[in-house]
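Journal club prep, notes for RB
We'll compare a predicted complex against what the paper describes. Inputs for the nicotinamide-adenine-dinucleotide case:
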Amino acid sequence: MTSTPIAPATGRLGVLTPGLGAVASTFIAGVLSIRNGLSAPIGSLTQMAHIRLGARAEGRNPLISDFVPLASLDDLVFGAWDPISPNALEAARTAGVLEEADLGPISAELEGVVAMDAVFDSEWVKRLDGRRVKTARGKLAQAQALIDDIERFRTENECDRLVMVWCGSTEAYQEPADCHMSLEAFEEGLKRDDVNIAPSQIYLYAALMSDVPFANGAPNLTCDVPALVELAGQRGVPLAGKDFKTGQTLMKTILTPGFKARMLGIDGWYSTNILGNRDGEVLDDPENFKTKEVSKLGVLDTILQPEVYPELYGDIDHVVRINYYPPRGDNKEGWDNIDISGWLGYPMQIKINFLCRDSILAAPIVLDLALFMDLAARARGSGVQEWLSFYFKSPETAGDLPAEHDLFIQQTKLKNTLRVWMGEEPITHSEA
Ligand SMILES: NC(=O)c1ccc[n+]([C@@H]2O[C@H](COP(=O)([O-])OP(=O)(O)OC[C@H]3O[C@@H](n4cnc5c(N)ncnc54)[C@H](O)[C@@H]3O)[C@@H](O)[C@H]2O)c1
């Protein structure tokens, strides 16, 4: 096979995060700790996973990082915007995810990641009172201020390339409006301050206008609109989203393909969580929770195909709850009760109690997305990067195609994309 020409990963890669809260600070602290030789990059495919090449008998199984030209952790520089956190050290201490013993050796570097003033509107995140906010009046001026920030960051840090990963709060639920239907309508909307343009969409617009790939870690509508997909295509910039797949949804997309593979029925799936971090507080507002709920509820149907298997999956009661419970901090506890049915319809139950750490699961996803989005840009990938569905609860697709939620199909697609780009045969597992 002929390979795709990929520009080398020379020079520095700037990773910009709108949002410097629990996830972003855990990601930055983790990378600093790893590159100082203090920790291992557990949970990151770009750092730890191997990839099989060719027939099994060939025994070729390099690390992904030795197979594709990824930016090295030593070449990453970090930038962020936040309306509350002043810098990554304060953000990490407030989040309380990592212990002082882990933060101590890297505290000076963390303190050096100073948040830029945010484009923030409390209408979209009612539970937060943002103070470090841009003074630019009007959405077009705010977009221009972000474009200026991006260029300043690029120059001051001597970056060769940049990527942006949204790690900001979940915004209030939003349906696409007229201003989202075409690029022309969106730019008109920016000029006349259309209320339907969310802050995250202003960041995305600024990123695309600066030729910076954008990945959306929250369930916000952000990239899911024709106007901004059109802009990404026009400028040839990669996009991906949305909502990091961690915790309960990760478990769902690991288990559900297994039940379906064995043709076991599912009658109900009740999921509840307690969560005490700032994300949990934001999600305590019904409008913000609705955005998350829609993202979490979507996964079962596309894996189970109830239209193909009405007897097994035609009538599932799927309920998802998130309860804000401050004492638990970032250590989310999830409970799942799954009512399944087997031979002759006999019922069975499965209970899962997942004591997880949200940001510990999300941080390696931010790293992988930053490195893979940069790779996609150097491979001249443009628009929605479906091969990165592996990382998202609500994967975006090109056009109107249904999303793929099955973690194992997503993994195959990711690895086969890398194989094909590098001129290797995709692996179908049908022969040697
Ligand atoms: N941790 C996980 O497992 C996980 C999984 C999926 C999605 N997410 C999403 O990732 C996002 C970050 O999660 P977190 O736990 O770090 O939350 P967090 O509340 O700790 O951090 C979010 C930060 O975004 C900032 N922010 C809000 N609006 C902003 C704006 N307009 N511009 C810049 N910054 C803004 C807030 O001040 C806050 O510091 C959330 O949307 C969350 O739903 C997290």
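Talking point for the session: The first helix runs from residue 22 to 35.
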